[in-house]
Amino acid sequence: MSTGKAVLGTVAGLAIGGILGILFAPEKGSVTRRQIADKGNDCVNDLKSKYEGFANTLKEKIQATKQEAKDIAEIGLDKFDKVQGEFNDEAKNF
């Protein structure tokens, strides 16, 4: 079983257990529904936060990779210009 499936199963089990615990608690239905809604909102907010963190990390890595590619291209162009200049100098002396 993959780690992702194990984590998903654990989270689902915890959610189901929490909901069943709330449903069987000796409280009014309106209070129970509010608690379920609050737990759902907490889960949604947690997922949004994790998604935003993942998206920001990915964005930073993409920007770093772009910059690294630009740096490599600049080094390559500098070397090309140097070799081209040397070639032109040798061609003039030939």
TrEMBL record:
Keywords: Membrane, Transmembrane, Transmembrane helix. It comes from the Bacteria. The chain crosses the membrane at residues 6-25. This is Gas vesicle protein. It comes from Flavobacterium aquicola.
